[in-house]
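The records we work with from here on pair a chain with its fold. Taken together, the tokens spell out the fold as the letters spell out the chain. To see the layout at work, look at the sequence and tokens printed below.
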Amino acid sequence: MSNSDTTEIIQIINLYGLALDSHSWDLMPEIFTQDVIADFGPAGALWVGVEKLTYAFKIFHETLDNHMHTMYGHVVHVEGDKAHAFTYGDWLLVRDSAEGGPSWLGRGWYDDELVRTEK
């Protein structure tokens, strides 16, 4: 494991939050492989494939008036071309017309398996 591997993985994880918040959907294939399996367990959501994941996130996030994702507390373990990353996340979602108040602050974690590709 090298520090550059760990740094690159953290950059990719942070890019995920930036892609969502800036609606830069073209970045999703830079973050996820074509055959990604995105299982948001407790939320009851599962997407297979970067196109389906991107579409679902685009549809949801573009209904919001604002949102901000913060990724932190990264713990990364690299073994050859595979890695495991655990990251805490906070997200503020804002929909001005929502009943009960416009904002929702969520907290959770991401437990990722990563694979090095040519990209």
Q: What stands out?
A: Residues 34 and 50 are 5 Å apart (CA to CA). The mean pLDDT is 93.
